[in-house]
Amino acid sequence: xxxxxxxxxxxxxxxxxxxxxxxxxxxxxxxxxxxxxxxxxxxxxxxxxxxxxxxxxxxxxxxxxxxxxxxxxxxxxxxxxxxxxxxxxxxxxxxxxxxxxxxxxxxxxxxxxxxxxxxxxxxxxxxxxxxxxxxxxxxxxxxxxxxxxxxxxxxxxxxxxxxxxxxxxxxxxxxxxxxxxxxxxxxxxxxxxxxxxxxxxxxxxxxxxxxxxxxxxxxxxxxxxxxxxxxxxxxxxxxxxxxxxxxxxxxxxxxxxxxxxxxxxxxxxxxxxxxxxxxxxxxxxxxxxxxxxxxxxx
Length: 298
Ligand SMILES: NC(=O)c1ccc[n+]([C@@H]2O[C@H](COP(=O)([O-])OP(=O)(O)OC[C@H]3O[C@@H](n4cnc5c(N)ncnc54)[C@H](OP(=O)(O)O)[C@@H]3O)[C@@H](O)[C@H]2O)c1
What we know:
By secondary structure, the protein is α/β, with parallel strands linked by helices.
């Protein structure tokens, strides 16, 4: 179970108080969590700086931190400078450095794959990261990158409500022996416990497919089905266990100290093959509707 820090960056999540999110991170460290996902783009360095400071204050030296290179920092010199800044903020080399989004996405200039892959290898050779990898890249983009460098880590949107990678990316990564990390395993709150507040103005979820129109109604119906089957107390832990049963490591985005109870509880849940198949079947109608899009935004 990996602790996600996007919420600790503030800005994109209108449900979050940054101070409380940092208190949650402190609590995660104090209760023994050692795997953390972050990125320079989470509050423009705010999440990385907070995580680095809290790890230093706690005297923790054995944390494994995963971070990323934004798509507007993919030229060789930018990539290496960005990786160095992350390592400085975090106060340690990272466990894995990922290309956050493919080159040329989000209105950024395209950069040749060869340049990106070689710069990632340089970052590794300089001791900034132990492994290199990709996030949000299609199978063709993974294979293109592999012409120049190995893919040693990977991160994708994945939950019972968002299973696009099952078509080709997931089996391919399994073949490489890479355990992908699943971000948004709780579908950004749609499958989290407790009453759900309406999404406020300026919250990035206003642009997430699952939070729109008919799809939102279907996600809510799926949530109700899970609650009927497993109860209000346990259904979110079942969701995280389902992700693990599929062979991925869930990254849970927390922003309150009490949120840490859920990943703890999820560790004790194991699902039978029949239960996994039953949840698959409940979510199957949603699969068709996200139309093969790896990105949840759009
Ligand atoms: N590689 C990438 O492109 C990428 C993209 C997205 C995320 N990530 C990483 O993955 C992490 C997780 O993904 P995510 O944050 O998008 O989605 P998520 O983990 O599915 O959902 C996080 C949201 O679920 C709610 N939540 C979580 N734990 C809860 C609990 N115990 N009780 C009640 N509500 C709870 C909160 O919703 P409310 O805010 O409504 O309270 C929280 O903001 C991020 O923090 C980030 O590190 C990576």
